């Protein structure tokens, strides 16, 4: 068994310990590309040269001739020197399967130290071309060889992104779990002061001695009312989920890669669920629900100072003071040019299409926004996929351009040479309070479309022969229908977030929201003479707003949090369905690292399966007095198999939020069913909505300051 090197709490590429020796070697080779460099000695044993000798791997230059001045000293394998010093980059050795010369030249034009963003069209388009090369490679060995050559000379962020997308979408590389390929990826998740403290402790401590620091959510003081939600917005697992989803569902690239089953609808629903959850977190902390960023001409009330250091060029991520205005963006350095007026025009055209019930393709032909495919068509238009939008030039890219308008608002024309802020990248965007206001604005397009649809009929809601009598949650040691949340801790390996590789165990202890494990107990009767295959759907929603006012069903609708969805075969007669919370198809387990950093026994690697809401975040925080919520279950008349394991790898999958790798989405119903459409006239409470195959109960979610 090969000992995996320094897994970054799901922030590095994890090599599978299963498989043959060749596969393991390929995985380790890819891992090594993103290791920190070793700390240089005072007198290096190998001369540092601008161009390596002929025999050096991938080199084309010659050693200095006798009598010539020695070459200029520079660190080995640091190709950024080639880009910053003006020297000509060294082309990679020709491989059996290699990138086209035209693409190679285009990649070299993208500065090695420039930040990369998949929200920027030119960046995404260039990455898409590289992804296409990786996707057509004959196997992992060829990809590893290409990546090894390119890692020395092209933009590291672009390479990391392209390699991650390709690995996630190739069926022959399922033994590799992609969570992050960046050399210093941890700097996108851990504030600079903490990494600096760890580096200092390593520098000043005994060689090899373990170092542990306590990480705090220190991006603001408590005088900022939004800071009480930093535990949610800045959580590593939450941000990794968002980053990973956008890798699984890129909006740019070949059509075969981008055109996944119902990806536009899933773009809507994944973000819609994030908003539902965030709103309940706000309620748990005594705040109002998210206020939509409804007017792009109004100032952004919230400021945000991420305290993150950039992984490239020794920069910090730009901050945004409170009350900044969005203005026209003209960033020639990154080919991002658009007007705020464009956002308004695209919004007007989207609402016009929703009212009309159709969009227009490039030829002017109407494409109906019907109840089956309309949400998917809209999703691809709103996100702004040039590949899948039916009319990209007309409807634009309101989601992506909105992200970049906010990300560049501190320096929209580049006069101060500042790069984009955290809203410009999927791995960091959820840290910023404006993310949720912007996505509430985006979500309104989908809600407006859904409101044009007719309520579900009784035949669509009922399940013949099935009667559900009750549902409750049981948490061992507590009374029924009572969920407990608390602060938990995990230790993150900081080893690869440091400037130089360390022999010591270096960790940061993070605090995160957690909950006591629980299970659902559902009682249902099957009155048919034979077994009935169906789908069980479980949601929760708050009963009241922050002032204690009871929420009617229409106000609860956007706050419905999907907790689980699974297939079940009901035998004739009475059934007692017991379902453990850890089996939720919304969540994924989260990797932990133990390299002597824990007192308790923890396996060296607990596999994180990729896209999915972190399991420890399944339950909202609640309040110390107890947050009253409605628990809802529906057993629907569906024969679909809701996958809980990947058919190829056998790993747990969060199919509700992320679908299945290169397969059909495992639920034919609309995402969010039965709460995605308006309710029939007169149905104003959840109880009035119930049909015989549904049940509800009242639960309490209570936060306790200490772990029970």
UniProtKB/TrEMBL annotation:
<dbReference type="GO" id="GO:0005576">
    <property type="term" value="C:extracellular region"/>
</dbReference>
<dbReference type="InterPro" id="IPR037020">
    <property type="entry name" value="Hemocyanin_C_sf"/>
</dbReference>
<keyword id="KW-0503">Monooxygenase</keyword>
<dbReference type="InterPro" id="IPR013788">
    <property type="entry name" value="Hemocyanin/hexamerin"/>
</dbReference>
<dbReference type="InterPro" id="IPR008922">
    <property type="entry name" value="Di-copper_centre_dom_sf"/>
</dbReference>
<keyword id="KW-0964">Secreted</keyword>
<feature type="signal peptide">
    <location>
        <begin position="1"/>
        <end position="19"/>
    </location>
</feature>
<dbReference type="InterPro" id="IPR000896">
    <property type="entry name" value="Hemocyanin/hexamerin_mid_dom"/>
</dbReference>
<dbReference type="GO" id="GO:0046872">
    <property type="term" value="F:metal ion binding"/>
</dbReference>
<keyword id="KW-0479">Metal-binding</keyword>
<keyword id="KW-0186">Copper</keyword>
<feature type="domain" description="Tyrosinase copper-binding">
    <location>
        <begin position="432"/>
        <end position="443"/>
    </location>
</feature>
<keyword id="KW-0732">Signal</keyword>
<feature type="region of interest" description="Disordered">
    <location>
        <begin position="60"/>
        <end position="95"/>
    </location>
</feature>
<keyword id="KW-1015">Disulfide bond</keyword>
<keyword id="KW-0560">Oxidoreductase</keyword>
<comment type="similarity">
    <text>Belongs to the tyrosinase family.</text>
</comment>
<dbReference type="Pfam" id="PF03723">
    <property type="entry name" value="Hemocyanin_C"/>
</dbReference>
<dbReference type="InterPro" id="IPR036697">
    <property type="entry name" value="Hemocyanin_N_sf"/>
</dbReference>
<dbReference type="GO" id="GO:0006582">
    <property type="term" value="P:melanin metabolic process"/>
</dbReference>
<dbReference type="Pfam" id="PF00372">
    <property type="entry name" value="Hemocyanin_M"/>
</dbReference>
<dbReference type="GO" id="GO:0004503">
    <property type="term" value="F:tyrosinase activity"/>
</dbReference>
<dbReference type="InterPro" id="IPR014756">
    <property type="entry name" value="Ig_E-set"/>
</dbReference>
<dbReference type="InterPro" id="IPR002227">
    <property type="entry name" value="Tyrosinase_Cu-bd"/>
</dbReference>
<protein>
    <submittedName>
        <fullName>Phenoloxidase III</fullName>
        <ecNumber>1.14.18.1</ecNumber>
    </submittedName>
</protein>
<feature type="compositionally biased region" description="Low complexity">
    <location>
        <begin position="69"/>
        <end position="80"/>
    </location>
</feature>
<dbReference type="InterPro" id="IPR005203">
    <property type="entry name" value="Hemocyanin_C"/>
</dbReference>
